[in-house]
Amino acid sequence: ALRGNEVLTKLILDYELDLPKLRGTDPVASLDLSEKGLGPASAIVIASLIAGNAVLTNLNLKGNQLCGIDNYCEGTYSAAGITALAEALKFNGVLTSLNVGGNYLGPTGATAVAEALRGNEVLTKLILDYELDLPKLRGTDPVASLDLSEKGLGPASAIVIASLIAGNAVLTNLNLKGNQLCGIDNYCEGTYSAAGITALAEALKFNGVLTSLNVGGNYLGPTGATAVAEALRGNEV
Question: Which of 78, 100, 147, 219 could be joined to 184 by an S-S link, Cβ 3.0–4.6 Å?
């Protein structure tokens, strides 16, 4: 309804949203909505409005509850909001920086973002756990080597990285040492998920140039290690 209504200027779901700024009718290049307690419902509304915003280049949604999970890992998970935001990326042609760090996206949410990025080359910076340089990962800003060691990268970042390097035709050396690709930190704390390392393993099946991959210092677990081993059977690069 908001797409055809420009009279309503303020909407509160979890926090007061400035609708003209989100629509672009009160144009701003940057919008900070970090740590506002925004949940899936707010994310869906934001997504609907920014999809057609032709001026907003920087959107900060850090530290919210876009998938319904708070900082204490409590709540009810829903990928509806992050999926809507991912869909918006397919239509928005100006947003270059998006920060969704500090939101538990889960494998479903991260996959939705990764799929959206395949058809979007405008977005250049994405923060999930750490700022990812998307052109370098895509190969549109070609580099032969990329060091993302000890950046606190978790499963969600791994899923996005995997999606982009699968089609990168120039990157030969990728260093992911000392991260939390499966959700487990150096103190063996966290929640294990093989989704990220499995996505990276799948990427190896399609990437035909990567010759060196460092995932040392990440607890992969038997499931993650098996996924990598299976991928290597069909990869002789």
Answer: 219
